[in-house]
């Protein structure tokens, strides 16, 4: 970012000589020479008048006290760049009447001639300034140290280029150019994402981001007039914003996506947000799937909070009709429509399951044979289920920036790199976090690290991150598809089923396996064995006080329920959980053993069978800590029970109409019912604890997580056993240099499964 000063020094130096110098005998080549421009005192003084760079690092004072290397690095940067200033919070502890009092100061420092910190300003604060979200609070405490008419906010993951810095003077002139009824208050700047070459995921994010920060924001700025502030290369009219509430709203939770509120604030107070393509700032985006998922989760949660904010309400009230529609679809509406897309899949599949289990589907098909309109209506659904349609703006961006043929090649390449799986997976991430924030609130900042991370992620870590957001939902979709396959009456057979359900299967498989497809070395046999061992240790390790979710399944399970707080949220969760009981109600009447009996007795008997299964589960999972004295007796009882159940099942199959398919159908019926009971128990946790059933529910939840983990793990283990899959994955998903490095590291590692990439 200090290139801005270097550019100003050069421009000042070049414009210093006048035509009078030619008369003094200086040649034109001497005047246009840039030799020694950085040593010119006049040019440097002029640049210092125009430009200051305030780096805001709240914990710099603490880092200095602890002699951390980060503090030494910041001090080194200040010594290297004389125009650099650092703003930080200084905490001074004093003893008064035997009590330790903390005083907080907001300080600005620079490097003196000896390389030491020289204090410029020290402002006493009324208390601890860290009240709201971290980043906006950080900006708010430092903005008072800025000077001039314009301010550009820059994130830590951004970069700059000297040739772009030369254009800043032209950009600032835009404040005096007519851009509509009102003068500009935010000058939008495009971004150049430089991390696209690391892996296929990085290129997907890079292309998606590029299409938004160029083509997307240009259209939002003009003619739609609904461009807000989305990231941090934009240049603000400092006087306008500092006198109208600042550039950062920092209330906790509601302002988690703090950037966009600057745009809301500017628009509400009769500002004007523009966009300019001729200048750009570099930006590094997340390159690993977990980083991307956490970032998208944070943004989706932030959008859920925006729905509740007064800013969005006021904008909706004050915009004209067309501007209101544009604003809706480019902010909260995008996430709302994403959620509706996924809900459409669920509604469609539950509708199909109802038609299949009730027998209505069969009679409709028989009566409407040859009804083209009905068949067309049932078949169109697969067009809008795949998340690939979110990539349409990206394709348009390719065509505009690269030309039609190159755009086609880029798009085909992305498809071969499995971009459809990634975008479908992102659809699930956005839906989960947006929906959860709407239901329960409590969005939180998720630190992605933004590191240059392309390394193997353990199976257990992926499971913790995606279990509730993707895996549970994917397995629910698969169960619905299996019900449709088993009981759906279809004259056309296999082709009709495939045509109708291919997109739903694609959705489910993407949600289940994307974290492992895009995970480096996910299909290396040694790492797979180590991952399985790590996952089983995590699953079976009992939690306790101070144990984190990364170490114990029990601690993680408790963390996953923290968001359920309000009565309204509990009621909604309970209503949504009732859908799992549909499976049992429909399937028990389809069993051979029930014959044509449609009375409620059959359904009642199924609940008695389920209660028996739960009792058996309790017998086999009885805590051995309690039963130290009669461990032998317990094992004997468990053995006898197992043999009795097996014998009883064989006798029932032989003597009654119960068939082997009925046993599998019963599993299909009882598994969702158990999950539904578990969801309701978790929702009403305080009541379940009072009833003394919480430990039983926890044991049941562990069983379900073990089962889900095995369903996901077995295909990965099979692929790891095949040696060519890992090589194919590496070549497909990562750039050539990284692929070569990965192969070399595996050779060097030999038989040591613990070695890091």
Layout of helices and strands, plus pairs?
Blueprint lengths: L2 H13 L3 H5 L4 H5 L8 H10 L2 E4 L3 H6 L3 H12 L3 E13 L2 E13 L5 E9 L8 H9 L7 E3 L5 E2 L2 H4 L2 H5 L13 E8 L6 H22 L13 E3 H5 L15 H11 L4 E11 L5 H19 L2 H9 L2 H10 L1 H27 L1 H8 L4 H8 L12 H11 L1 H13 L2 H22 L18 H29 L6 H24 L7 H16 L12 H7 L7 H11 L3 H7 L12 H21 L10 H25 L4 H24 L1 H7 L2 H28 L1 H11 L2 H14 L8
Parallel strand pairs: 1-2, 7-9
Antiparallel strand pairs: 2-3, 3-4, 5-8, 6-9, 7-8
- State Rg: 31 Å
The average pLDDT is 85
Please report which band the strand proportion falls in: under 5%, 5-15%, 15-25%, 25-35%, 35-45% or over 45%.
5-15%
Which sequence of strands runs across the widest sheet? 5-8-7-9-6
Keywords: Membrane, Transmembrane, Transmembrane helix
Pfam families: Glucan_synthase
Protein name: Glycosyl transferase 48 domain-containing protein
Organism: Araucaria cunninghamii
Polypeptide structure, described:
It comes from Araucaria cunninghamii (Hoop pine). With 757 residues, the protein is of the alpha+beta class. Among the domains are: 3-23 and 32-50, no CATH class; 567-622 and 632-718, no CATH class. It has 34 helices and 9 strands. Strands 5-8-7-9-6 form a 5-stranded mixed sheet, sandwiched between helices. A 4-stranded mixed sheet has the order 1-2-3-4. Strand 2 and strand 3 (99-111) form a beta hairpin. Helix 1 crosses helix 4 (41-50), helix 13 (289-307) packs parallel to helix 21 (419-440) and helix 21 crosses helix 23 (494-517). The longest helix is centred in the middle third of the chain and has 29 residues, at 459-487. The protein starts with a helix and ends in an 8-residue tail after the last helix. The model is unreliable at 753-757 (pLDDT under 50).
